[in-house]
Amino acid sequence: MAANELHTETVYGWAVEYAKSGRSKCQQTKELIPEGDVRIGKEVDNPFKEGAKMKLWYGYEALFKSFRLGSAKKPRVYSTDELEGFAELESEDQDTLSALIDAENEFRAGLAKVDDDAIRLEHTKNDGVFWSVVQSGATTRVRWGAIGDEGNVSEKEHKDEAAATKFVEKKIAEKEKGGYVRTADAGSKRKAASDKEEDDDDDENGGGGGASAPAKAKKAPAVKKAPAAKKAPAAKKAPAKKPAKKAKK
């Protein structure tokens, strides 16, 4: 299985199972995962044993909440096919996880469609940083980081569209008060960053080609109202706890 890189962490795969005991802790909430509850494991290198791997366990709901925060490139679960052990789950638990994954993919896809309409602001501090926000119905995506990078993201579903709009307006006002200045649309900036990464890869691989002419600065477009994202399906009943297996005599 291809590994996904996240800074210095490599994620080799994902697994799902019923907790064998009540001793494992969710890496996101730091709370114990009850015996018999569905848990998802992230396979990473074992820092205590060179060459070995280990699984970091999460409560499934906490794991998917964590996907809405952090690096834009952080490894995420996009399909039940990625979950080793999924076929061994009860059908009800399979349906619950499938619905959760579908809802999360739909949530992120709705924001991706309007990413190019994001409002972007920049600041000269720390050698240049950016902050951007985009709204789709009742959901928002904030992206921030060093200019030239894709940055980190924070995705949020608000009570309604009005609440999301209020959030966007408040955050923009706060950034402008702090010295941030509106610039070109976020879509073209993000594409430029992506193109730069590709050019860097070509250079490392011996790719040729002369230097491209600098792009002319674009006038910041008028803010467009993003289309409303589809409402995620209602959450299904949480998986039932499985009775602990009796020890053989």
Key attributes of the depicted protein:
alpha+beta; 24% strand; single chain; 249 residues; disordered C terminus; six-stranded antiparallel beta sheet; globular
Walkthrough of the structure:
This protein is an alpha+beta fold and 249 residues long. The protein is 27% helix and 24% strand. It contains 4 helices and 12 strands; from the N terminus they run E-E-E-E-E-H-E-E-H-E-E-E-E-H-E-H. A 6-stranded antiparallel β-sheet has the order 6-11-10-9-8-12. It has a 4-stranded mixed β-sheet with strand order 5-4-3-7. Strand 10 (139-146) and strand 11 (152-157) form a beta hairpin. The longest helix is centred in the middle third of the chain and has 23 residues, at 91-113. The model is unreliable at 1-8, 204-237 and 243-249 (pLDDT under 50).
Brief sketch in words of this structure:
It contains 4 helices and 12 strands, in the order βββββαββαββββαβα. The chain has 249 residues and is of the alpha+beta class.
